[in-house]
């Protein structure tokens, strides 16, 4: 692993621990519990990919995903998933 991946690996493990702690101490299961469980699953998957050298590969095509996208969303699984992100971007009111 290079230095960037080591940093990311540390951050993912820390995120995993924080989510596990939140789930363990949650009194009532609700809609947010489901979101936390899904995020935990995605985080564990990203950690495994880092461990086995498959981090950054699209799960559909096998091609590598954009490093910029992975820095923003290290749990990204496929190029198709990244296309859904466009609906969350802030749209400019000015036309180019």
Give the gist of this structure.
By secondary structure, the chain is mostly helical. 58% of the residues lie in helices and 0% in strands. The chain is built from four helices and no strands.
Strand content: under 5%
Q: What characteristic shape results from the CA principal axes?
A: globular
**SSE succession:** HHHH
Mean pLDDT metric: 88
Rg, rounded, reads 16 Å
Low confidence ranges: none
* Helical/strand content category: mainly alpha
Which oligomeric state applies? single chain
Annotation, overall tally of beta strands? 0
Distance, first to last CA: 41 Å
Largest sheet: none
Estimate the helix proportion, in percent: 55-70%
Number of helices: 4
Please name the defining characteristics of this protein:
mainly alpha, 58% helix, 96 residues, globular
Characterization of the model:
The protein has 96 residues and is an all-alpha fold. The chain is 58% helix and 0% strand. The protein is built from four helices and no strands. It has helices at residues 3-24, 31-52, 67-72, 79-84. α1 (3-24) packs antiparallel against α2 (31-52). It is globular and about 40 Å long.
């Amino acid at each position: 692993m290079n230095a960037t991946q080591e940093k990311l690996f540390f951050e993912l493990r820390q995120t995993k621990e924080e989510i596990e702690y939140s789930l363990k101490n949650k009194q009532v299961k609700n809609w947010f519990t489901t979101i936390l469980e899904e995020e935990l699953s995605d985080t564990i998957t990203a950690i495994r990919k880092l461990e086995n050298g498959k981090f950054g590969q699209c799960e559909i095509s096998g091609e590598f995903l954009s490093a910029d996208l992975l820095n923003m969303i290290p749990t990204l699984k496929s190029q198709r998933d990244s296309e859904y992100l466009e609906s969350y971007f802030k749209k400019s009111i000015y036309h180019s």
